[in-house]
Amino acid sequence: MNNGQLTADVKKLMDGLGELPESTTSPALIVVSGLPGSGKSYFSRRLAERMPLPIIESDAMRRILATRPDYSHGESERLFRACHALISDLLRRGLSIIFDATNLIEYHREQLYRIADNAGAKLILVRVEATPELVQQRLEQRRNGVDPNDKSDADWKVYRKMTATAEKIRRNHFAVDTSKDIAPAIEKIVREVRR
């Protein structure tokens, strides 16, 4: 991908975020990781209700760049290059961000660690999980279009495949079980952002 394409992609994604909040002197990058159906997007939306932060949700961003996503390696590479460039730009402007993507591989998370370090931003890692039974129920609801805010196409087959590739987060992180009340975890993260 050339720089012209990357610049155009970042602009499209930026336009998709809408109005942005005020900048701050100490921005934070909140990286929300988890398997499909674990509740990442729900958690991210609830956190954004508590603190007005833009959410860079990979599933929504993919649909901005590809009207009919094919989830190919090339498409994913293009998407994450643009997301990472957008995150870097927003952090440098002093904006805190929630990045909602599976982020299952440590190598991919390390790129985010570097982006936060280079921008002088606070890095907050959140691993979201739920029981396989609840995930299966949620993915069934997704298939039936129950939640209009759900932008993901991942199903139970994708969940099972990704379970095998998920790697432990090697840094300190918050672990949030979305089958339980998430309000206490949200409050802890809000305090961490403001600290």
How would you explain this protein's 3D organization?
- With 195 residues, this protein is of the alpha/beta class.
- The protein has a single domain, classed as Rossmann fold, CATH 3.40.50.300.
- Helix content is 51%, strand content 13%.
- Strands 2-3-1-4-5 form a five-stranded parallel sheet, sandwiched between helices.
- Helix 1 (3-17) packs across helix 4, helix 2 (40-50) packs across helix 8 and helix 4 runs parallel beside helix 5.
- The longest helix is centred in the middle third of the chain and has 20 residues, at 73-92.
- The radius of gyration is 16 Å and the shape is globular.
The count of strands amounts to 5
Number of helices: 8
State the strand order across the main sheet: 2-3-1-4-5
Instruction: Look at the helices and sheets and give the structural class.
Output: alpha/beta
Bin the helical content.
Answer: 40-55%
CATH T-level fold name: Rossmann fold
Order of helices and strands: HEHEHHEHEHHEH
- Major sheet size, sense and barrel closure: 5 strands, parallel
**For this structure, what is the CATH homologous superfamily?**
P-loop containing nucleotide triphosphate hydrolases
Indicate how many domains the architecture comprises.
1
Give Rg in angstroms: 16 Å
Per CATH, the architecture is 3-Layer(aba) Sandwich
Inertia-based shape: globular
* Approximate strand percentage: 5-15%
The N- and C-terminal alpha carbons lie at a distance of 39 Å
The first-level CATH class is given as Alpha Beta
What is the overall pLDDT average? 91
| Uncertain ranges | none
